[in-house]
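hey m, so remember when u said the tokens were messed up on ur end? i reran from scratch. heres the input so u can diff it against urs
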Amino acid sequence: MSAPLINLTRVDCHDAASIQAALDRLAVSGGVVQLPELDLILDRGLELHSGIELRGCGARTILRKGASRAYSFSGYHNYGMKDVPLINPDGLAVGMTVTIFDEKKRGFDVTFARITWLEGDWVGLDRGIESDYCAEDQPLLVTNHPLIFGRGIRRAAVRNLTLDGNLAANPHEIDGCRNGAVYFEQCHDIEITDIAEAKFNGEGLSFQLCSQMLIRDCSFSHNKGNGLHPGAGSTNVRFEKCRSEGNGANGFFFCVRANHVTTRDCTFAHNQKAGVSIGTRDCHNLIEDCAFDHNTGPGIHFRPSPRPVEVHSCRINRCQFSDNAAGLDCGQIEIVAAAHDIVIEECTFAGAEDAKGVTTTDQVTAVYLERNRLLRGHTEASGVGFTKLRPEFSCGAEDCQPRDYRHLPR
């Protein structure tokens, strides 16, 4: 039996709530929601359920983030409560998605929730707040939210859409641990294909505690934060034929313990930090056939990560590095303490005459270079820890085993 299909017209899609209603109708059975050609401003994020595919018509289906509004708390409120007190909630409505934070709380202390009720100056939420919020830290509820998201779902997909984060009308940057133009948390077996996203005040794509993710033929560009952010233990992930360009931070940010990730045939260009940043417990990852071009920082930067949470067992194959880290005292690949078992093979480095291909710092060990090509007078390597003995290890999504999921809530 084929999956149920809801084929929406422009008349059906008069606002975000109408699209969400179609998604909710398939929450039990699963199925496909097909969006028409449209250009629509969203006042809330669109939430996927298990078994649902949300499809558009590519460049002819445009979803834009609405302008955000900020609401001040009227006082202290504590962890776990599914409501918050505001000075004035005018303009809020049941069904809207909002983010709560204060001057000190970032990361997983930020709350992302949907409004479930309004009563006087109190706003009800569909989940408990993630932290205590104290009045002296000036907590805010802001109508910042992903354009598309999922939480705790399986076997879902989003395809063929154009997403506009409307950066100029959304002044509050939201941390990628709880937000992103496209965001998934504790989800498994998700496909994201043919998405063109730009100008979100935060991350382009962020997912946390997820597995079996496929991201293909997508672009995430000109965002305030990172373009791509596989985070918090995400495992068995494939990025294929994607582009991350002109972002305010890194093109691609491996967060803590993002393992068995394959990044293949992707481009990272003109990002304000590194093309790819990889750090704490980000192991058994494969980067191949990718291009790194004119990033302000290194093409690939291995962040400081002391033992026992150091980076190791990563392979970089057949990648092209051009004019990254120009003017900086580091290589186009920079490896720092205490990374080990890093293989760099058949890569091409081009840039200024005095540029370096690979640089390392103290405590780095077992970095193996083989058949790399140097253009325009490059020095291949500088530093310590290089080896002539090729380290052997498994890496990439293709080599993920059942034991590699033990850390995830599943």
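this time it looks ok to me. Residues 267 and 291 are 5 Å apart (CA to CA). if urs says something different then somethings off w ur setup not the seq
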